[in-house]
Amino acid sequence: MLHEVSEIITHEWQRPSLDIMKGFSGAATGHIADAFDGYAALNFKLKAIIPEQANFLGIALTCQTGPADNLALLHALTHAQPWDILVVDTQGYTNCAVAGDLVLGMAKNSGVKGFVTDGCVRDIAGIRKLNMPVWAMGVTPNSPHRRGPGHVGGPVTLLGSTIRSGDILLADEDGVVVIPANRASKILKKVHEIAQAEQIVEAKVHAGMTRPEFLQQR
Asked: For residue range 133-160, what is the model confidence (pLDDT) as tens digits?
């Protein structure tokens, strides 16, 4: 493993109000996707590494690493705060892990609520004990370098979706959705309206409804 260090660039960002973020507690990813006209989720290829530990809610703390490298992730740990979700852009590199249970354990000790990467992780037995949701492309025992370059706090792209530090992320068994920080208040109101409307339809389905109301009127 190489340790020759290159520069890691750190960008400035703002975290949203915790009250706004916590307003999404209990929301379904499907309702959030509906609030964005059907599209808010990260690519379906990202999977919860421990399926029964899929759910999280928090604030994105982004970093981008070089292929087969995790120096930027280690720098991101120095900025981690409670309620953060570490989002690691490996530029799609999956031939080695970007993190294992020890790095993820350090993140959890800082109050981090989850981890998302377009790369791989390792040490599944240890990750399971952490009880911290980890979403990734897969698992491999191969280890990364620590040489950079990379950046912390800037926009990243995971499988076609752009995420910025300060965005709100929510995950459940269906996937991970992204709520841009500058739209969070409006989306939160819309999500509540969608949930209420769905409760009405759900009650009708349980009562025996056989087709959508707009078809019943024909």
From this structure: 999 999 999 999 998 899 999 999 999 9
